[in-house]
Structures are given as C-alpha cells and as structure tokens.
Input
Amino acid sequence: DAGVIQSPRHEVTEMGQEVTLRCKPISGHNSLFWYRQTMMRGLELLIYFNNNVPIDDSGMPEDRFSAKMPNASFSTLKIQPSEPRDSAVYFCASSLKASGRVDEQFFGPGTRLTVL
Amino acid sequence: AQSVTQPDIHITVSEGASLELRCNYSYGATPYLFWYVQSPGQGLQLLLKYFSGDTLVQGIKGFEAEFKRSQSSFNLRKPSVHWSDAAEYFCAVAPPGGSNYKLTFGKGTLLTVNP
Output
C-alpha cells in the first residue's frame, strides 16, 4: 500500500520566491494535516483538513502561508514570499477520522525546505 | 494548554541493553498519549498509543509504554535494544474529545545504539 506521498523531497529557493509543497494522502483517508519541524520549535501542526475543508488553521504562522485541498487526493502548502526563517522540514499526514475513534495519523517522508 | 517534556535530548545504549525513554505531560485531564519514531530522512511512525484502560500498552517492534497518572508520565521501554532502533523518538499528547487530532509533540529523544 502506498503511504502518504510528498513532493518535492528537497527544495532550495531564494528569499522572496514562491514555494509550493504537495501532498497525496493515503487513499480512503478523510483527514489531512500539515506540520512543520524545526530545531527550535520541534513539530508544530500548521493546518488540519477534514473532508477537504480546513477545520483548524490556527497554526499557520502568517498570511504568507496558505494551504488548499481541492479534492480528497491532493493538497498543497504554499509560501509566498518565502523567507529564510521558513527553512524547515514540512510533513504531511493523513488519517481516517470516524465517530468514536481517535485519529491515528500516518506521516509522509517530509519536504526539506531551504530558503537562502 | 497541553505540553510535553522529554527530558533526555540524547541517549546512548549498547545493543542488547534495556531502554527507557522518559515523557512527562501537562494537561488538566488525562490526554490521549502516543509515541512515534522517526528514522533519518523518514516521516514519523506510530509505535503505540494510550487512550484508556490498561495502563501498560504494547506497541510494534517490541516496545511498550506505561501510563502513570500520579506522575503524569508515559515512559517508553524496550527490554533489549537492536541496532535498527537507532532513531529519534517523539512523545505526543492530544486532548480527549473532538479536538483529539491536535497532537502536541515533545522535542524528541535521539537514540544511539552502540554495537
């Protein structure tokens, strides 16, 4: 079974450029999460989608960050314009949320972003 | 707000030795508790989870964890470590109820295994 797929695996860009990270969740999962991992702050939840609808975006750092989920099999996280402090590993995770169950989140391999 | 503390940033053990990784949490009620493992260049993989019931939970790869309410702890253990266990380990908590998706992670413990 294919797990969560993320692309690209590595991205190097210059300050001010637009960056788009992509995620394909596990087929059949109805919840999707974007996380950011840095040495200073650890793993942080950025945004949570359920059935393609953003439910909780309280972790999105600022307006430069936006996320979309146009359908059940694809999501993007965009940073425009990018800044050096955005350098981090960005993880996508998906889960099957059902009534009475606790989410078990399955993580993708991550995208390592470097902004010069 | 919930928080998770993993007091040990880095632990080194010899192959075959026992292992205990510490995790303490701060939350008003008993949260849902998780341990994840991250191998270099990989995403996180769930080792085990605790929601309620038996306070000793078994996970994959021979790991277990014990929930101790009085100590607000959820320590991870393995009786005999293998070289392939070298990785970073993260404890996480989530609030019970409708926001149980909202994982808060500790900063992680890096495990090195000596031959």
Summary: The interface with chain A takes residues 32, 36, 41-46, 49, 51, 90, 94, 100-103, 105-108 of chain B (CB under 8 Å). The mean pLDDT of chain B is 93. DSSP finds no helices and twelve strands in chain B.
